[in-house]
Amino acid sequence: MMRIRDIGPAVSFTWDGKRLQGQVGDTLASALLANGQRVVARSFKYHRPRGIFTVGSAEPNALVTIGSGAAQDPNIRATVQEIYPGLEARSQNRWPSLGFDILAINDLASPFLSAGFYYKTFMWPRSFWEKLYEPFIRRAAGIGALSGQHNADHYEKAFAFCDLLVIGSGPAGLAAALEGARAGARVILAEDDARMGGRLICDNALLNDAAAGDWVDAALAELAAAPNVTLMPRTAVTGAYDGGTFGAIERVGLHLPHQPELPRETFWRISARRAILATGAIERPIAFANNDRPGVMMASALRSYLHRYGVAAGQQVVIFTNNDDAYASARDLEGAGVQVTLVDARADAVAPAGFAGRFIAGAQVCDTRGRMGLRAVQLRHGDGRTEWTRADCLGLSGGWNPSLHLACHMNGKPQWDEGLSAFLPVPGMVPGLDYAGAANGQYDTAACLAAGQTRARAALGDLGLSLPAAADLPKTPQAAARPMLPLWQVPGKSRAWLDFQNDVTTKDVALAARENYTSVEHMKRYTTQGMAPDQGKNSNVNALAVLADVTGRSIAQTGITTYRPPFVPVSLAALGAGAQGAGFAPQRFTTSDAASRAMGAPMIEAGLWYRPSYFPQAGETHWRQSCDREVGYVRNAVGIADVSTLGKIDIQGPDAGAFLDFVYTNMFSTLPVGRVRYGLMLREDGHVMDDGTTARLGPDHYLMTTTTAAAAQVMKHLDFVRQAHCAQMQVAFTSVTEEWAQFAIAGPKARGLLQQLTGQALDGADWPFMACGPIALGDVQGRLFRISFSGEMGFELAVPARFGAALFDRLCDMARDLGGGPYGMEALNVLRIEKGFITHAEIHGRVTGFDIGMQGMLSRKKDFIGKAAASRPGLLEDGRELLVGLRATNGSLIAGARLFTQGSDAVRTADQGYITSVAYSPTLDASIGLGFLRNGRARMGEVIRVKDHLRGVDILAEVCNPVFFDPEGGRARD
Amino acid sequence: MLYLECPYCGVKGEETEFHAGGEAHLKRFGPGSSDQEFESYLFARENPKGVHFERWRHVNGCGKWFHAARCTASLEVFGTYSAQTTEPPKAIKDAISAKRPGWRWRDFS
Ligand SMILES: [Zn+2]
Question: How far apart are CA A693 and CA A14, in angstroms?
Fold first, then answer.
């Protein structure tokens, strides 16, 4: 291996810690080849030494780790990674080193490691799986590893739109893109490679009697100058989806020294009215004994390394082919001074003109030698005679597979073409996607150019664009290829590899067939053929041809496995770009947020909202101390809580009352103006959706509150009922949750505080329990509701949100003067459990009004959503789990615990119910909770068993009324 | 990707802007309906491979519900229209007939 021509200035990089020189324009693979690095990886299962096999995206062997620390990227294809100054590359799946790998012992154990080995060996005992088998397999059979650290690298998602998406920039793609550019269409030309041109920049072919690269440069210059064309190099189209959508991954910063501001990769969603698949074809190898040695490569790759990278991959090269294309590799290598032997499996083959090396027709390569790098190749001549010949490099060409993967992403099945011995795409597999060039089985350059032009013109014509006359295509040399000879495997005793990346051999496929995994999908899963990161790009067709052979079927009958996105590996970081940390979900903040945080309150998430958990004070060492103190504020003085997160829906119109009557189980059209009523809302299936209070602000004006958790769901429900069931009603509503800041002022001193704040008496005659109305705070017009979620004398005061922060500060100051202060979610929860008020812990979607003891709220006089279902006998029958209170007789209750009759076994069949909410009640000095118990309302006073199998709780509790404190409700009234 | 046009605000968006809401044109049966009517209203749904009518909501937009006629196999959208209708408008039916001659869905064709 050596560099025979410089391609650019020197670049220094490291390989396994060793400093090496490459050149600008090199991939890691070409630079390693130029440096004589033959072994670059260890194989997946057998830890066999492996070298670079291909030149492009389909590389199965050369997976490496790039970078170090948190940002290290495993399983990067060395053939895709461009080198840059300071690039840090490491080999993987070896220990202690690439040259000496302990687990290469697996290779000697290969008779035991055949297909299905894991299924057969690690079946039992079951308990061994997690502790023994899986860790062993993960260590032994592996590829690269992540760092395990948080990666702060920047990734992006982006959208693009075009009339014509051209996928691939070889002759067909360039011809297609030029047509689109000239027709004025919005064109995107996407190319996986860093450089555009496809095989035109990898061969020394001629166009218009000059180097093909000249024509490519001119074409790219024209495209780059066209304002309607976007060139996207380093962008692999990864999937074809519905509606003309394509996924694509762009390597934005992976080829450059690390720059924090530059995304590493961008995941694109490209919406294209039409698309042309011009992805070319992938050369396929041939299976024979020990065909996986370092130095065994694809014949076309040898040519690419020579012309594009100036690297000769060997000094003594054998080319083994069944078709004419590899002749170009033989000729070009010979022209570069390499000694070449050309072995053609076709008996009637004749040596290419001007080829001076040894030419053998009707022969096959049947074995190789050289564990750490190819040393010799064994040939079997047509007469059966064998010979060993020295070689440090072997180029294989078993024909070509069109890269039709994207065409199959929407369930389309490609068709086997007997003449080409290849699967071809069928028209219409993906709506709007057409095929041109080698991807469609058109292998010669003239045909590619013509197809690109014709198919693009057809697509543009479909879009109604007026097309200029078709320009002349560049002149190509005459080429007449003779037919290939299908050749998938050379018979032999030793292992012959199909899938290099997953270590699947022809024997594995034969074994799968013997064990009756004869369907191609079963064979794939049994052997893991085609399931590695390369997804079998080099091996799938060969493997099914071998399967067809051993099962005595044709390839067409055998069929092919399903192609699925993504076409190349896509990092999860790119797919999930932006959705980590604070970008994971929107954040909603109340107007008291800053003040609460300033007081040291830990914030907890409530949906998208953040609410204070409690407000710690000096000397408090445990949240319970703060919580108990805050409960005391409300029970004995006055507490302030921000309740703005509850959903608020403003409902107006002459039919507002009738609409509410239909969505609530109880009546609202009869509610007097200036009054508030508690309402229960069901789903049509009779189960509780939400609850809350609704105030009548005027004859045609209501304000509904929802729980924080269900605000969006209720809004969606109201919109639906309004549009689908109440289309004739004159009613309109809108969410005003964020327009109003609302604070609960609760406790025996609540009225006193508000008198002081508003200068009004607010006595029981004018402001009885459940009254509401406007209230002035100086110039600010607010709303006051006399409602209580704590069971104490309570008000909720709402002001336009811009006054919220100031009002909160003021309320907290006034409360402190009265011996109270702010209280958080913990105290709020204790207060409501003491009163038996439900939240979505109780109305979790599987309970009815009957279950929570509110059957009386289901009006008999009118229809409402959920009425018919709620009156079904099955939802009212004996034995349902009903809401109860629970008071621990020993220990502490725990939410999620199951309930059992005392003395019964704590097993599923004896289950009697469960606990939904628990609290330590400082008011009652008891551990109390709410839960659902079979026939619970008839079991008051019973002592039952509370068991939490997961957390090891097993205690007793007394069943009681869910209203633990002030059951008559006198404290909230005057 | 699925593209839908909200008939209320006129915005054309991709699928993440919308939520699917089940089958369209269900006639509500409430109290007093027969067991069979109620059961079919609450539970019985079409599951066609081909032409289908669905409810969608422009959840990350105007918030309104609307109806969409589309093909469950190809995901092709024939049209979207108001939720305040008990059957698809003629223009939608014609658009479907042009592409799926002889289509049938519940009582519509
Ligand atoms: Zn809309």
Answer: 69
Residue A141 pLDDT > 60: no
Per-residue pLDDT band at A139 (split at 50, 70, 90): low
| Residues of A in Cβ contact (< 8 Å) with B29 | 868
For residues A893 and A889, give the distance between their C-alpha atoms in angstroms, rounded to a whole number.
10
Q: How confident is the model at residue A579 (pLDDT cuts 50, 70, 90)?
A: confident
In degrees and rounded to multiples of 5, residue B12 shows phi and psi of: -100, 125
Q: Give the nearest partner residue to A243 out of B2, B42, B57, using CB atoms.
A: B2
Could you tell me the distance, in angstroms and rounded to a whole number, from the CA of residue A728 to the centre of ligand 1?
20
Q: Which two tokens stand for residue A110?
A: 């290969």
Closest-CA residue of chain A to B74: A242
Torsions phi, psi for A539 (to 5 deg): -120, -15
B14: which chain A residues are within 8 Å (Cβ-Cβ)? 243, 245, 271
Tens digit of each residue's pLDDT (9 = 90 or more) over A550-562: 999 999 999 999 9
CA dihedral B7→B11→B16→B22, nearest 10 degrees, is 0
Comparing C-alpha atoms, which of A417, A432, A430 is closest to residue A563?
Answer: A430
How many Å separate Cα A857 from the centre of its chain?
45
In this predicted structure, the answer to whether residue A1 has a pLDDT above a threshold of 90 is: no
Task: Look up residue A82 and give its amino acid.
Answer: E
**Helix, strand, coil proportions of chain B in percent (round to 5)?**
20, 30, 50
- Domain boundaries B3-99, corresponding CATH code: 3.30.2270.10
| Percentage of chain A exceeding pLDDT 70 | 97
Tell how far the Cα of A735 is from the centroid of ligand 1, in angstroms.
16
Q: How far is CA A347 from CA A344, A491, A662, in A?
A: 8, 17, 86
Contact call for residues A379 and A387 (beta carbons, < 8 A)? yes
E strand or H helix at A927, and its extent? Answer: strand A926-934
Three-state secondary structure string covering A130-167: HHHHHHHHHHHCCCCCCCCCCCCCCCEEEEEEEEEEEE
Question: What pLDDT shows up at residue A581?
Answer: 81
Q: By the 8 A CB rule, do A418 and A342 touch?
A: no
Cα(B13) to ligand 1 centroid in Å equals: 9
Distance B62 CA to ligand 1 centre (A): 4
CB A73 within 8 A of CB A83: no
Q: Is A399 helix (H, G, I), strand (E, B) or coil?
A: coil
pLDDT one-digit tens code per residue, A910-949:
999 999 999 999 999 999 999 999 999 999 999 999 999 9
Q: Does ipTM come in above 0.90?
A: yes
Q: Which residues of A touch B (CB under 8 A)?
A: 241-243, 245, 269, 271, 431, 684-685, 715-716, 719-720, 723-725, 727, 863, 867-869, 871
pLDDT in tens, A167-202: 999 999 999 999 999 999 999 999 999 999 999 999
Residues of B in contact with A578 (CB under 8 A): none
Give the per-residue pLDDT at A45: 85
- A to B CB pairs, distance under 8 Å: 57
Rounded to whole angstroms, the Cα distance separating A105 from A533 reads: 24
pLDDT digits (tens, 9 = 90+) for A751-779: 999 999 999 999 999 999 999 999 999 99
**pLDDT tens digits for range A678-687:** 999 999 999 9
Give the nearest chain A residue to B59 (CA atoms). A716
Determine whether the interchain pair B1/A684 forms a contact, defined as Cβ–Cβ distance below 8 Å.
Answer: no
Please report the sign of the dihedral spanned by the C-alpha atoms of residue A632, residue A633, residue A635, residue A637.
positive
The pLDDT tens digits for A217-268 are: 999 999 999 999 999 999 999 999 988 999 999 999 999 998 888 999 999 9
How far is the C-alpha of B104 from the C-alpha of B83, rounded, in Å? 20
8 Å CB contact of B83 and A685 = no
For residues A293-320, give the mean pLDDT. 97
Distance CA A615, CA A639 (A): 12
